[in-house]
């Protein structure tokens, strides 16, 4: 369907990240944003048509200005729509009681091992109707959009039985269809060993491999397959089996690695050629080097470290070692109940030693590559999907400096204004 062209004019800084669509951005290039001052973008039919200085676009499109919706971005920062490549979006309920327990000294794993944590949200999600699940998850997706996020990856994993995992993935699919934001699905049946399998975890691994993964793939409900590889959850060997099985069915591997303890997760991600390894708070130096060599993207989640009161992943070291770094909220009810990618970028600077330019690269084009969408989104270039966020700050440095505030002014998704 055709809709009115949009002309964004006079951006004080237009961050294009041009030339990054082919491969994840590494090293010193993460600092290069390809900025145009007094920048201008013409959007038409949901796509970016032309990007340049305002003088250039005025010469080419000036005669058509009457048919376009003109957005004056004077004094503002224009960036690609932010992308969140790791969330547990689809669930019901919340766990503020556990937050209070942790503030009083209990650990995340203690709570989970005593039947709370992921198990608590699983109980709630198993009981919820698809309508409830849709309504609660949609509210979160609305909030993502208000924070400038135009694409969200969403994992299942609060069912851990075939029918409830499918219920979650179908809700994610419906959200993708009905909501302005795009939702990209990951199957994460291997989120925990469900309580009913506690005494025979390998039977659950077999169930995942023999029944759940093939059925999810057959129904085309997910693109990726993820596993929580952590002591007391899934071992590296079990994780390897689960991820290899997914790959045989066309689901690309992702992994929750080295979140709580060093557990060879980064090494495993490189050995199996995962698209990304996520968390990595306790990744080993060898694992980081192996990820750089294998081209595995590090999806770092500094909000989770902050909320679990743990030391963040060493983002600085990973970039210096040549790993492509992306950032994400990890939005979930236990370890990171936030939707604020801008706050996550602030934490990237303040807790992981990343520069304001690097965190923007990590939250846009590298996040796009982490969900295999680098050719469609994540930079402002002709031919790409017209997903753009306008912030009411003069430059990308100020976006990191004035932390803890939602500076989003306008959000455009597929060439339409969806937040203003
Ligand atoms: O990425 N670590 C495992 N999964 C989530 C937390 C899920 C939850 O606590 O509900 C994470 O931190
Ligand atoms: Fe997670």
TrEMBL record:
Zn(2+) binds at residues 86, 88, 256, 330. Residues 77-418 form the Amidohydrolase-related domain. Keywords: Cytoplasm, Histidine metabolism, Hydrolase, Iron, Metal-binding, Zinc. GO terms for cellular component: cytoplasm. InterPro entries: Amidohydro-rel, HutI, Metal-dep_hydrolase_composite, Metal_Hydrolase. It catalyses: 4-imidazolone-5-propanoate + H2O = N-formimidoyl-L-glutamate. Pathway: Amino-acid degradation; L-histidine degradation into L-glutamate; N-formimidoyl-L-glutamate from L-histidine: step 3/3. It holds the Pfam family Amidohydro_1. This is Imidazolonepropionase. Binds 1 zinc or iron ion per subunit. 4-imidazolone-5-propanoate binds at residues 95, 158, 191, 259, 335. Catalyzes the hydrolytic cleavage of the carbon-nitrogen bond in imidazolone-5-propanoate to yield N-formimidoyl-L-glutamate. It is the third step in the universal histidine degradation pathway. The gene is hutI. It comes from Brevibacillus panacihumi W25.
């Amino acid at each position: 369907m055709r809709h009115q062209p949009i002309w964004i004019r006079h951006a004080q800084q237009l961050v294009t990240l041009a030339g990054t669509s082919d491969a994840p951005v590494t090293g010193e290039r993460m600092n290069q944003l390809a900025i145009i001052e007094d920048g201008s973008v013409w959007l038409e039919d949901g796509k970016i048509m032309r990007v340049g200085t305002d003088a250039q676009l005025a010469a080419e499109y000036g005669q058509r200005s009457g048919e376009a919706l003109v957005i004056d971005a004077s004094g503002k920062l224009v960036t690609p729509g932010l992308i969140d490549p790791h969330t547990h979006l689809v669930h019901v309920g919340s766990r503020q009681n556990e937050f209070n327990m942790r503030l009083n000294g209990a650990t995340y794993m203690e709570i989970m091992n005593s039947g709370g944590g992921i198990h608590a949200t699983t109980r709630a999600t198993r009981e919820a109707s698809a309508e409830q699940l849709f309504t609660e998850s949609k509210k979160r997706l609305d909030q993502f959009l208000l924070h400038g996020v135009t694409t969200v990856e969403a994992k299942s994993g609060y069912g851990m039985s075939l029918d409830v995992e499918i219920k979650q993935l179908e809700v994610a699919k419906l959200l993708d269809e009905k909501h302005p934001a795009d939702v990209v699905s990951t199957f994460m049946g291997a989120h925990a060993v469900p309580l009913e399998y506690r005494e025979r975890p390998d039977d659950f691994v077999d169930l995942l491999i023999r029944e759940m993964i093939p059925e999810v793939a057959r129904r085309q409900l997910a693109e990726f397959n993820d596993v929580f590889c952590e002591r007391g959850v899934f071992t590296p060997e079990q994780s390897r089996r689960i991820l290899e099985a997914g790959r045989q069915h066309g689901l690309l591997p992702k992994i929750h690695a080295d979140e709580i303890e060093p557990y060879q997760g980064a090494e495993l991600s490189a050995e199996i050629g995962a698209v990304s390894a996520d968390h990595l708070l306790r990744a080993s130096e060898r694992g980081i080097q192996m990820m750089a060599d294998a081209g595995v993207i590090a999806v770092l989640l500094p909000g989770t470290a902050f909320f679990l009161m743990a030391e963040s992943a060493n983002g600085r070291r990973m970039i210096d070692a040549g790993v492509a770094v992306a950032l994400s909220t990890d939005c979930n009810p236990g370890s990171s109940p936030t939707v604020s990618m801008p706050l996550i970028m602030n934490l990237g600077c303040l807790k992981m030693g990343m520069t304001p330019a690097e965190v923007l690269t990590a939250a846009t084009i590298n996040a796009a590559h982490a969900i295999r969408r680098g050719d469609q989104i994540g930079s402002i270039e002709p031919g790409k999907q017209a997903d753009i966020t306008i912030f009411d700050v003069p430059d990308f440095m100020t976006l990191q400096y004035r932390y803890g505030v939602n500076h989003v002014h306008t959000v455009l998704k597929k060439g339409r204004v969806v937040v203003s």
